[in-house]
Amino acid sequence: MDFIANAVGRLVPTELEGRRLKPFAGAHADLAGGTGYGGRIRAAAQYTDKLLPDLDAAIEACAIRDGMTISFHHHLRNGDMLINLVMEKLAQRGLKDLVLAPSALFPTHEKLVALIESGVISHVEGSMNGPIGRACSLGRMKKAAVLRSHGGRFRAIQDGDLHIDVAFIAAPCSDAHGNANGLYGPSACGPLGFALADSLWADRVVVVTDHLAPFPCYPWTIEGGHVDYVVQVERIGDPAQIVSGTTEITRSPTRLLIAEYAARFVRDSGLMTEPGFSFQAGAGGVSLAFVKFMADYMAAAGITADFVRGGSTRFMVDLLNRGLTRYLLDGQSFDRDTVASLRDHPRHVETNPFVSYNYHSKGCFAQRVQVSVLGATEVDLDFNVNVNTHSDGWLLHGIGGFTDAADAHVTMITAPLVRNRVPIIVDRVTTVTAPGEMIDVIVTERGIAINPRRDDLQERLRHSSLPIVPIEKLSAMAVAMTGVPEKPRFNDRVVALIEFRDGTIIDVVRQLIPRE
Amino acid sequence: MDFIANAVGRLVPTELEGRRLKPFAGAHADLAGGTGYGGRIRAAAQYTDKLLPDLDAAIEACAIRDGMTISFHHHLRNGDMLINLVMEKLAQRGLKDLVLAPSALFPTHEKLVALIESGVISHVEGSMNGPIGRACSLGRMKKAAVLRSHGGRFRAIQDGDLHIDVAFIAAPCSDAHGNANGLYGPSACGPLGFALADSLWADRVVVVTDHLAPFPCYPWTIEGGHVDYVVQVERIGDPAQIVSGTTEITRSPTRLLIAEYAARFVRDSGLMTEPGFSFQAGAGGVSLAFVKFMADYMAAAGITADFVRGGSTRFMVDLLNRGLTRYLLDGQSFDRDTVASLRDHPRHVETNPFVSYNYHSKGCFAQRVQVSVLGATEVDLDFNVNVNTHSDGWLLHGIGGFTDAADAHVTMITAPLVRNRVPIIVDRVTTVTAPGEMIDVIVTERGIAINPRRDDLQERLRHSSLPIVPIEKLSAMAVAMTGVPEKPRFNDRVVALIEFRDGTIIDVVRQLIPRE
After folding, report:
1. Model's pTM, two decimal places?
2. What value does the mean pLDDT take over residues B432-457?
3. Which of A41, A92, A168, B45 is the most buried (most CB within 10 A)?
């Protein structure tokens, strides 16, 4: 296996398990694009009745064979019941070497570890977290996993890099034609856009619903014209677990201070009062607090943002309802309050990874966001960010939309200086998820570091009372608190590829030699 | 040139001007589909600023060369100002042999005849009517025109049969990213779906607007991620002419009787009271009256349709507002009253030729419509329908959505027995647009003919007082009134191909030898 140093200095293979790989060359080095995967065209006359009696009938109809790639979406989050159900049925049929291509996995999918170990699942192409990530770290998968951002997954499917044989789409509401959305029914989950690429390019598409509605089911986030079969089941998810994310603002004084610093940075920089202001923030406790601080500052200054970008939370919905933003552009629901808003508020708008994040397009919304506030497990002195592995080497998180959202005009990382007695700011991140050139500001409770590339931001904050310091100083403070942590040990085997949004390889994860 | 008899007995070429052609084999003979045209993939980093100062800059940026295919949509109908403007600019640049690929043309585009005669435009792939059709009939185009239905046009672009080099999309409302819709601004025209395929697969896409809105312009019928350039101009259309179709119900007693017969047929057949009732009707005077009769019958019977399909008219909107239909699924606005309804009514829903009409898909809405009511220029004893040429041989109309909408469960043709002293029911249609196997009922003021294939409909109407007669009797009545009309004379040259929705050739139009 040949390795080559990529643009962030990581050695990445030029070929792995038969797939030729391109090294990461810079966040915007790919100007060429390419040719799309046209996909298989079907004839409408074959589709007079798509309703099948049960999942087994759909599995039969799709003629699933060993080695095929089976995909799912993650809008039901930890409440999803479909992935386990389908994969167990495939295991019972004696199938082997399946490629599992979910947009993400959650702790509820832990039982898939057994299917990985028994060879039913060869590997995962898609985000993993927790138990599946641990199994990957330990080399349990037959082939290397491929981690992609939300936009990168759309691109890979669009371009034909990730060919899906059969997509199973858990749909909270669908008609018999397969028009489906996530807004109605007992398993309502809000948006359904992570399944869009699957519906457009998978060879076979099965919509599985527990709420069959009369035609036309509208909105048709998933268009029936892309759907082969519709199956009604009793339940696709556990309502108590669907989109039941963190909805409480952190009470940690440290985290509240980080959120306040981040919001003050946006205000004091003057970005907030410029025309066309917009921002994006996630669902962690710091992000929720950041949104609340922003709401206060915007209200005080009489500012209405052009748009804010979710994953949506009730704090985002509050911005919309208070007139502090014209639009809430929402790719996924993180809490249940947001689902009703998406259904009923005409300016709470559903998005998908094509419009939001796809780098192989004629532009996407990520480029139009003024401020993006994101978390990280590690940041290094070159501002490279890791969101996949921890400093102890375990692969525990997917990329989510990180690399896509980091294309904002100003990308800010919020993180405590130290987490579980481990520094967040390190010499060299364990894994590079996103290159330092995309990361502009690191906000910790002890100080804020601005990327030296961003003279403009340094200048904007010249008269601010915020504690702006060089990143080296933050690193030194952390090490002074924790000592230099022990590095994890890996063997040579590449167990996962970290794919950048343009399809190049920005880093690899190697098999972990666990500490005693 | 080799000719072969197709499934409706027409001799069609197997090859023309370098393009291999497949003969029509039956309405649902194509079960295979194929492989889609992937299209050129671009990289988002190239798209940081799409706004160009004027149309000339866009033409330069698109590097338009001789022989390229240039496309437009027709939602502004006879009010469109963009097609003439762009084509004249291309003529001024000395370009030749351009292929014009509009979704339709209107009388306002008559001045394009001069560009056809001067060789700027080689031929038209798309619907023509009136003056351009006359020029085609007289052999003025360098190559044969290709006429496709709305669904057939989407299919041809999707499958790569019609490759568009540059699409110019007249957009009543757009933001700087190219997110565009037809709902706002001085040129509001309602839906914008005829431009969807162009936006998805054209190599370059230029959105031209006279109403530039802040980002995000929502809804984004055209997604900015598919758009290369945005140009703001003073006016894209003449508001007095945009969607200013017929809005008055016919006062002709003959036509009113036809409409009443058609509506009574739907009622008396029992179709109206079956679960899942739906229908589609167009914008002619008979269609408007039909909708009004249906409204009366449905109200009297306490029926709510699952959906009705437009092109929308104020009579369709009235159905929605009176609760006589759950949804109005609308592909184009025929009158101005409908635009505000589409914008404001949550169940007046915009559609496009993919969801509605595309045969190369996993099904489309056309198959789910119970009753489709359509017009024709001729119907023959095999129930074949002509909507393109008149009995005197002139090519004067596009296909519109005819062949697609004819896939409904029951397709009814409404027409007077005689029009301008020419019978509508003839031995053999001048041109076959749609095969008789798709046509179920012919409704005239003198009688109603049911296709013998439809025993079920014969049976349903057994006890009806409607004047149901064999089609031969209608034909004989017409000839008794008019005598046998003179047949047009053609020379051998094929001036237009009539393409069926699956891409096969159902008929050709030959060069007309005009009567003295």
Report:
1. 0.97
2. 98
3. A168
